[in-house]
Every structure is written in structure tokens, then in C-alpha cells.
UniProtKB/TrEMBL annotation:
Residues 293-425 form the GGDEF domain. It catalyses: 2 GTP = 3',3'-c-di-GMP + 2 diphosphate. GO terms for biological process: cell adhesion involved in single-species biofilm formation; negative regulation of bacterial-type flagellum-dependent cell motility; signal transduction. It comes from Sulfuricaulis limicola. GO terms for molecular function: diguanylate cyclase activity. The keyword Lipid metabolism does not apply. PROSITE patterns: GGDEF, HAMP. Its EC number is 2.7.7.65. SUPFAM superfamilies: HAMP domain-like, Nucleotide cyclase. This is diguanylate cyclase. CDD domains: GGDEF (cd01949), HAMP (cd06225). Pfam families: GGDEF (PF00990), HAMP (PF00672). The lineage of its organism: Bacteria, Pseudomonadati, Pseudomonadota, Gammaproteobacteria, Acidiferrobacterales. Keywords: Membrane, Transmembrane, Transmembrane helix.
Length: 425
């Protein structure tokens, strides 16, 4: 079965289809039963109606013949004309029954033959009866008549036997069709159950497989793996839910990146914060030690910054601080790490940079800041300078703390010597 096709169906339609599939066997059993029952009722009608008719008419015929025979015997004993009239009436009735029976197509060939024989015997008997009624009957004629009538009775008895044989044949036929019915019903129910099971499995699979995928996704989320995405191509409600799930994961991941970024950055300048400086400096020290590479650190402080705040206001001071931070970033390489160490004090980690290189960078920064101005929103023009202290690994310190301390001491020296200067430890 094409998985794509049925996962495109909405769940509601899918449930309805599955319900329909479950009802198919019931419908099939109902249709099969009604067809069979119609057939069985027809057979039963034949079984019941035809033999009953045959038995009834045969009995009627026997009675008629007995009655007519009795009238002949009575006449022979005591001749009376009324008996002859009665005989003729009974004889006609018997003949009518013969004609009626012979006209029925459901009498089998053997029955037809027996019936024809009986009728012939009856015709012969009537000839003998007329002899009796013509008053010259002898005892021998009566004897012959009795024999004929007995023969007719015997023939009709034989017909009974054929009826019973017919009934037992029909019973066998009913048993056969009963077996056939059971077979059809079992096959229909079996097939129906298979279809129902397949329908149920199809429905369960179309819902459970995506649910398992969701379960996996949620497990990844619990383990803080926000980059996991559900790979469901369903076009149904579950597919839409999966899309929403993935979009939510995307948003959460973006928020997490933002939070991570915020946790390592300074809100005012956008530079790395002090904690990140210490972390990165430790990493750079390890790297420099392992690969015997140069590493330098700069500590920068804006000169007379208190005066800037006092004169132009704290906000203008902030603007100046941001300008200096931007200028530093413009004057270093992308691999260099610029941080706000605290207040108006900034720091720069310079990987792969020796004392000479660090000095060049520091001078460049100092010169650029000296040459620049900050224009505040109020229209004031602020001019600041920076003092820079420089320390080199491992000469001036072989730990993060000792290296920062050394750079700080060099900065202090720069301040002491007049500010707007670069000094090494
Ligand atoms: N506007 C602003 N001012 C700050 C910020 N952080 C620290 N300051 C100010 O920077 C000034 C630092 O003053 P000091 O440490 O006395 O030093 P200075 O005035 O810069 O003088 P020197 O460092 O000796 O040249 C203080 O007035 C602080 O309030 C900040 O984020 N924004």
C-alpha cells in the first residue's frame, strides 16, 4: 500500500474509512445470509409443498377409487339405480384427480409411469364395473374388479415409496446446501476479519509510526538537543503538528543562541564580558603553552573618564565608551578577543602575537582613539584618550590572573607616566 497516499488523508477520513472496512465483513455476512436464506426457503417450500400435495392427491385418489369400488360391491349385493349414479359421480371425480395429477410437471418420470399404469387399471376397472351395473355380472367379474382395484392401490403405494425417496434426496440436497452455506459464511467472515485486521493495522500504523517519531523528538528535547527535527512527510493533522513542532524547535534554538550570546556579552558595548575574557584567556594560554606560540594581553582604560561623565553626563560617557569599544574592534583581527573588563576598563587578548606585535596593535588603538571624537545626541563633541598596559605570555605571567595582573600594572605605569601612553610590564 502506498504510504504517502494514505498519510495524505486527514485522520478523520482515515478513521471513517477504517470503520467502513470493519463493517464490510458484517455487510458481506448479511448479504450472503439473505441470498442463502432466500434460496433455502425456496428449497424448503419445494421440499414441503410438493410431497404434501403428492401425498394428499394420491390419498384423495385412493379414497375416490375405494368409494367407487365400494359402490360397485354394494350394487352387486343389492342392485339399486342410485348406486350406479353415485358410482358414475365418484368415477368422474377419480378421473378428475388422475387428470389433475398427470398435469403437474413436478411428478417424476417413475411417478408418471406409475400414475399412467394406475389410470389404465382404473379404466379397465370401470369397464368391469359397467359389466356389473349391466346386471349380467358374474362372481368372476367381481373378483377381477377387486384384483384390478388392489393393483391400483398397490401402484399408488409404490408412488408413496417414490415420494419418500424424493424427500430423502431433497434432505440430502438441503444438507449439501447447508454445508455450502456454512462454507460461504466462514469464508466471508474469515475474509472479512482479515480485511478488518488489515484495516485496523493500517489505521494504527498510520497513527503510531508518526507518534513514535514524536516520542523520539521529545526525548531529544529532554536531552537538550534542540537541533533534532522530525522527519514526517504526512500531509495530515500529524504532519501539520510535526511542522509546528519543528518550527517551535527552531524558535527555541534561536532563543537559546541569543541567550548564550547575551550571557557572554556586555549589554552596553556588545563586547565580551569579564567572565568570557577569563575563560577565553585560559583557553588561549593552554593553546599557546601546548604549541609554544606567542600570546599577549592589553588592558585599556579611558583617561579622565570621570571628567567626561561630570561634564557631559553619564549618557554621553556611555557614547564615548561605545566609540572606544568600536574603534578597538576595528583595529584588531577577527581572532582577537575584545572584552569589557569592568567600568571604563577594557581588555584585548591577542593570540599568536608577541611583545612587538602587541605593542604595534596597542599603539594603533591608542592613536586611533586619540584622533577620534564622539558626537553625543545633544550635539556635544567628546574627545578621549586611552592608556594601555601590555603583558606577554609567559614572560609576564603564565596564568590568566597573573597575565591580567601584569597588564594592569603596566596600565598603571602608563597612567603614572602621563596617560595616552602604551606601556609594557
Ligand atoms: N558613562 C559611564 N561611565 C562609567 C562607566 N563605567 C565606569 N564609569 C565611570 O568612569 C569613571 C572612572 O573614573 P576613575 O576610575 O576615577 O578614573 P578616570 O576618571 O578615568 O581617571 P583615570 O583613569 O585616572 O584617567 C567613573 O566616573 C565611573 O563612574 C560606564 O559604563 N559608563
Amino acid at each position: 500500500m502506498n504510504r504517502f497516499a494514505f498519510t495524505n488523508l486527514p485522520l478523520r477520513t482515515r478513521f471513517l474509512v477504517a470503520m467502513g472496512i470493519v463493517f464490510i465483513p458484517l455487510l458481506a455476512v448479511a448479504i450472503g445470509s439473505s441470498i442463502f436464506l432466500g434460496h433455502a426457503a425456496n428449497t424448503l417450500n419445494q421440499v414441503v409443498e410438493q410431497p404434501v400435495y403428492k401425498l394428499q392427491t394420491t390419498t384423495r385418489l385412493q379414497n375416490q377409487i375405494r368409494k367407487a369400488h365400494a359402490l360397485v360391491r354394494d350394487y352387486a349385493a343389492t342392485p339399486r339405480y342410485t348406486l350406479k349414479d353415485q358410482f358414475e359421480s365418484e368415477a368422474r371425480a377419480a378421473e378428475a384427480v388422475f387428470i389433475e395429477m398427470l398435469g403437474k410437471p413436478f411428478f417424476g418420470p417413475r411417478e408418471q409411469t406409475l400414475l399412467a399404469n394406475a389410470r389404465r387399471e382404473w379404466k379397465d376397472s370401470m369397464v368391469l364395473a359397467n359389466v356389473v351395473f349391466s346386471s349380467d355380472a358374474s362372481r368372476a367379474t367381481l373378483f377381477q374388479l377387486d384384483q384390478r382395484v388392489n393393483q391400483i392401490m398397490f401402484t399408488l403405494e409404490q408412488m408413496y415409496e417414490t415420494f419418500y425417496a424424493e424427500i430423502s434426496a431433497q434432505r440430502t440436497q438441503i444438507n449439501e446446501s447447508e454445508k455450502g452455506f456454512l462454507l460461504i459464511i466462514s469464508a466471508t467472515v474469515g475474509l472479512g476479519l482479515l480485511i478488518a485486521m488489515a484495516g485496523a493495522a493500517w489505521l494504527a500504523r498510520s497513527v503510531l509510526v508518526p507518534l513514535r517519531e514524536f516520542e523520539k523528538g521529545v526525548a531529544h528535547f529532554s536531552n537538550e538537543n534542540l537541533s533534532y527535527r522530525l522527519t514526517l512527510n504526512n500531509q495530515d493533522e500529524i504532519g501539520r503538528l510535526a511542522l509546528e513542532f519543528n518550527a517551535m524547535a527552531e524558535r527555541l534554538l534561536a532563543h537559546r543562541h541569543k541567550l548564550e550570546e547575551l550571557s557572554v556579552r556586555d549589554g552596553l558595548t556588545g563586547l565580551y564580558n569579564r567572565r568570557e575574557l577569563e575563560k577565553r584567556l585560559q583557553q588561549e594560554i593552554q593553546r599557546a603553552r601546548r604549541y609554544r606560540r606567542p600570546l599577549s594581553v592589553l588592558m585599556l582604560d579611558i583617561d579622565h573618564f570621570k571628567n567626561v561623565n561630570d561634564r557631559y553626563g553619564h549618557q554621553a560617557g556611555d557614547e564615548a565608551l561605545i566609540t572606544v569599544a568600536d574603534l578597538i574592534q576595528l583595529n584588531v583581527r577577527p581572532v582577537d578577543v575584545v572584552c569589557r573588563y569592568g567600568g571604563e576598563e577594557l581588555a584585548v587578548i591577542l593570540p599568536e602575537t608577541d611583545s612587538e606585535g602587541a605593542h604595534t596593535v596597542a599603539e594603533r588603538i591608542r592613536g586611533t582613539v586619540e584622533d577620534s571624537v564622539t558626537t553625543t545626541p545633544q550635539g556635544d563633541t567628546i574627545h578621549v584618550t586611552v592608556s594601555i598596559g601590555l603583558a606577554v605570555f609567559p614572560r609576564d605571567g603564565d596564568t590568566a590572573a597573573s597575565l591580567i595582573h601584569a597588564a594592569d600594572q603596566a596600565l598603571y605605569a602608563a597612567k603614572q607616566e602621563g596617560r595616552n601612553l602604551v606601556r609594557s610590564h
